[in-house]
Amino acid sequence: MEDKLVTLAIYTFEKAQILKTMLETEGVDVYIHNVNLIQPVISSGVRVRIKESDLPKALSIIESSQWLKEDVDEAKEAAKREKKILIPIDFSDYSLKACCFGFNYAHSIQAKVILLHTFFTPLSASAIPFGDTITPYQVDDDELISHMSEKAKADMEKFVKQIKNKIANKELPDVKFTQAIEEGVPEEEIMRYSKMENPILIIMGTRGKNKKDLDLIGSVTAEVIEMSRVPVFAVPENTHFSKIEEIQKIAFATSFDQKDLVAFDNLMKVVRYFGFEVYFIHVSEKADAWDEVKLAGIKEYFKKQYPALKSSYHIIDSSDTLVGLDNFIKKNQIDVLALSNHKRNLFSRLFNPSIARKMIFHSDTPLLVLKA
After folding, report:
1. Quick one: CA torsion of 231, 362, 129, 227, rounded to 10 degrees?
2. Which of 22, 75, 180, 231 is deepest in the core (most CB within 10 A)?
């Protein structure tokens, strides 16, 4: 009987090559999977696989390696760190909706919540390229900034009191939370704070689809989605649930890009503790036999990697991606749409907004965006 392969570790492409060389020197056959042979520089989601019969020998080699030991120790140390959920707020009703979901999710995974409010001042105006949109200041800058800061503090105190009242009334779970107020361009401050605190998830509220389309370019949530390396969960104010346990169906949109496999691994890190059904979907303008072949390959991959996962696979024929996704979501009563968001330049962001950015304003379905 042929010796089956098992996954020994998941590393960046560079580390996987080092481990492969190390094991093969000791006589262990190594196979690297999930590598794009056309662009082998992809540095995440690479699986190092070996024959099952070689597993004891490979493990002993790893245990005796100082390089790998340091890597394992670092992973263990990261696991011990306090898990954090970052919730940027602007004191609106949809920010409160985000908090409801964030506090319930934090309670489920025993994480801490950070409420972050940012306010824009004249000193931040240099970040805006359109100088004629700012009227001349009528008051001294220091006085204005002081006034805005005091207003932000007062609004934060009022919002925190509202949260504490909901906790006292059992409307929200009692989880540890802190609050912070920062001055500057909101999306830039959120990104800076995210890098400093290293949350496992950013949860943000969004307006419903009946709001102004003009928000498409300027929305802070849309900008954070484009910039963040941390998963972002966008919660519309009309979302019908407030707990992750209430999620029954997740649609994961794929373009058959290898990066989508990495993004799905990131999705499983966020929701791996909860039972749900995943719909893998691909929107195509016209029927393509090659799409069916690639979908079959993805189906086989996920069957092996996540054998307990309840899933189904669908190709949506639609000339309009948004309409195709929206119709599928309504027909199948999807609770959350998940997708990866590849890095895009400013020009394409302004004149050809990503699917993730468009979906924020097009749908009342929560959106989970993952960086591949």
Report:
1. 10
2. 231
